[in-house]
Amino acid sequence: MTRDYIIIVAGGKGLRMESDIPKQFLPIMGTPVLMRTMKRFHDYSNKLQIILVLPESQQEYWTGLCKSHSFDIPYTLATGGPTRFHSVKNGLDMIPADAEGTVGVHDGVRPFPDIEVIRRCYDAARTTGAAIPVTPVVETLRHITSGTADRSAYRLVQTPQVFTVDVLRKAYMQEYTETFTDDASVVEHAGHRVTMIDGNRENIKITTPFDIAVAEAIIKKASSTH
Ligand SMILES: Nc1ccn([C@@H]2O[C@H](COP(=O)(O)OP(=O)(O)OP(=O)(O)O)[C@@H](O)[C@H]2O)c(=O)n1
Ligand SMILES: C[C@](O)(CO)[C@H](O)COP(=O)(O)O
C-alpha cells in the first residue's frame, strides 16, 4: 500500500542541554517541544503516519504528558537505540514489509520546519528518491588549519530528510559507522544521490539552553505576524 510516513526521532540523551527533564519534553511557551514538532507534521497532512521513537525509560512519562496536555495526534511508538542511526532503524522496523511510498526522518527537537518545506521535501523524494532541506552559511566559514573557506560550497543540513521507503530501507541495512550523522549520509554511502531543497532558518535543532530562548522568540514573532 502507498503511504507516507514520518519517523520522529527523540531517542537521544540531550546531554548538551544539561537539563533534568529531557529536552524533547521541555515546554516552549507552555507546550512541550515534541508536541509542537508532531503537530507541525499533522498540520502538513493528517494522513501522514507518524512513528515516534523514544527511549524506553521515557515512554511512561510521555504518556502522562499526553494525558495532561490532552494531546491526541495518533502515532506508533518505537524504542530508541544507542545512536541516532539505531533509533531510525528501530523506527523503520515499524513500517510494514510490503509498504511503498515515502518516509521522512525528523529530529523530535526541531519544532519549526515550515509546512511548505515539508511539502517540497516529500514531493522531491517522490521523483528523486531522496530530498533534504538545507540553508546557506550566513557567516564566514573558517577551516581550523587552512583558514577561510569558500562558504558558497557549503550548506547547513536540516530535517525532515525524506526518501522512498525502498531507498531508506536498503540504506539502513548497512553496518553503522560514525560518519553516519544524518540520513543523507547513510543513503549516499549506499550509492544514492540526494537532492537539496531550500530549508527555513527557523527550523533550529534545540540543542543547548540558548536554543530554548531562540525558540520562544520564534513563537512570539510568528504570533505577532498572524
Ligand atoms: N540515540 C539517539 C540519539 C539521538 N536521537 C535523536 O536525534 C535527534 C538529533 O540529535 P541531538 O539533538 O544531537 O540529540 P541528543 O543526541 O539527544 O543530544 P546530545 O548530543 O546533546 O546528547 C534528536 O531528536 C535526538 O533525540 C535519537 O533518536 N537517538
Ligand atoms: C540530523 C541533523 O539534525 C542534521 O543537521 C544533525 O546532524 C543531528 O544532530 P547531531 O548533533 O549530529 O547529533
Largest sheet report: 8 strands, mixed
Can you name the CATH architecture? Answer: Alpha-Beta Complex
Give a count of the beta strands, DSSP E runs of length 2 or more.
12
Beta-strand fraction estimate: 15-25%
Chemical compounds bound to the protein:
cytidine-5'-triphosphate, the ligand C[C@](O)(CO)[C@H](O)COP(=O)(O)O
What is the straight-line distance between the termini? 38 Å
- Sum up the overall morphology in one term: globular
Number of domains: 1
The SS-based structural class is alpha/beta
Q: How many helical stretches?
A: 7
* Helix-strand topology string: EEEHEHEHEHEEEEEHHEH
CATH topology: Spore Coat Polysaccharide Biosynthesis Protein SpsA, Chain A
User: What's the rounded overall pLDDT mean?
Assistant: 97
Write down the CATH class. Answer: Alpha Beta
CATH H-tier superfamily: Spore Coat Polysaccharide Biosynthesis Protein SpsA, Chain A
Describe this structure in words.
It is a single chain. This protein has a single domain, classed as Spore Coat Polysaccharide Biosynthesis Protein SpsA, Chain A (Alpha-Beta Complex). It is 34% helix and 23% strand. Strands 1, 4, 5, 6, 7, 10, 11 and 12 form an eight-stranded mixed beta sheet that branches. It has 226 residues and is α/β, with parallel strands linked by helices. It is built from seven helices and twelve strands. The termini are far apart. Bound molecules: cytidine-5'-triphosphate and ligand LQXTBERG. The ligand C[C@](O)(CO)[C@H](O)COP(=O)(O)O binds at residues 84, 107, 157-159, 181-182, 205. InterPro entries: IspD, IspD/TarI, IspD/TarI_cytidylyltransf_bact, Nucleotide-diphossugar_trans. It catalyses: 2-C-methyl-D-erythritol 4-phosphate + CTP + H(+) = 4-CDP-2-C-methyl-D-erythritol + diphosphate. Its EC number is 2.7.7.60. Belongs to the IspD/TarI cytidylyltransferase family. IspD subfamily.
